[in-house]
Write a structure and sequence with these properties.
By secondary structure, the protein is an alpha/beta fold. The protein has one domain (11-243): Rossmann fold (3-Layer(aba) Sandwich). The chain is 36% helix and 20% strand. The protein has a six-stranded parallel β-sheet with strand order 2-1-3-4-8-9, sandwiched between helices. The chain has a three-stranded antiparallel β-sheet with strand order 5-6-7. Helix 2 packs across helix 3 (74-83). The longest helix is centred in the C-terminal third of the chain and has 16 residues, at 228-243. 47% of the residues are buried. One of its GO terms (molecular function) is catalytic activity. Residues 12-231 form the AB hydrolase-1 domain.
Length: 244
């Protein structure tokens, strides 16, 4: 009797960006699990690009089998860097994300295209960086958060997201990216057309430059919360390419 071989579904690793936390992936993770995918929502330290990428790479090293690596916002820069040297990563997905080339920073890319109102919504706080040097970290003012980050999310949910947001250091946003994983890995991208953090024009430019398969969704920066089915469908397309 012949037995059909079973190829295990790839694990999906979800990496949040600045001003969010892992719970921003809850509905996407639920949909992916229904489709039989193991899911890990990594806690992005948001302290510095190289250190954040090193941490995600350690998470990847603890996973057996192929991985689809997904990054939102600043997390796009992190997954691009983390994928290099992580042999189990088979595909990248960028969700309303920075997709930097070598030498570019999130701050560089944010300033390159008009349309972001993020700067006026930020609240800076002095901090000591991991290396002991003085720095600054940013959150979005809680009163401004729903409109700035999550305009198409129910008000009560957006207010809770404002409370649970995690700060990002200025150093993380300023650190130049290393060689990106998208140069050697197939990529997909969700462009949020109503994004007030990373303008849609910037998202399109970066995604197309990376050769990503692009899907546009009329959504705020919090597209994984407001449109989880659409985001999930793109992740599933990337995962399907791994198992063919």
């Amino acid at each position: 009797m012949f037995h059909r071989s079973h190829t295990p579904r790839p694990t999906v690793v979800l990496d949040h960006g600045a001003f969010a936390d892992s719970t921003s992936w809850n509905d996407v993770a639920r949909e992916l699990r229904r489709e039989g995918h193991p899911v890990v929502a990594a806690a992005n330290p948001l302290r510095g690009l190289s250190g954040d990428a090193a941490y995600v790479r350690e998470v990847l090293a603890g996973i057996e089998g192929p991985v689809v690596l997904v990054g939102h916002s600043y997390g796009g820069a992190v997954v691009s860097a983390a994928a290099v040297g992580a042999d189990n990563v088979r595909a990248l997905v960028y969700v309303a994300a920075f997709v930097p080339d070598k030498g570019e920073s999130a701050l560089d890319l944010a300033a390159r295209f008009p349309g972001s109102s993020l700067g006026d919504a930020l609240h800076p706080v002095p901090v000591t960086l991991p290396d002991g040097s003085p720095g600054v970290e940013f959150t979005i003012d809680q009163a401004k958060f729903p409109h700035q980050f999550a305009a198409d999310v129910p008000e009560g949910v957006a207010q809770l997201m404002a409370v649970t947001q995690r700060p990002v250091t200025g150093a993380a946003l300023e650190e130049p990216a290393p060689e990106p994983g998208w140069r050697t890995l197939p990529s997909w991208a969700v462009v949020a057309t109503e994004d007030l953090n990373i303008p849609a024009a910037a998202q399109r430019h970066m995604a197309e430059r990376a050769g990503a398969r692009v899907r546009e969704v009329r959504a705020s920066h919090a597209v994984s919360v407001s449109h989880p089915q659409e985001v999930t469908s793109v992740v599933l397309a990337a995962a399907a390419s791994v198992t063919r």
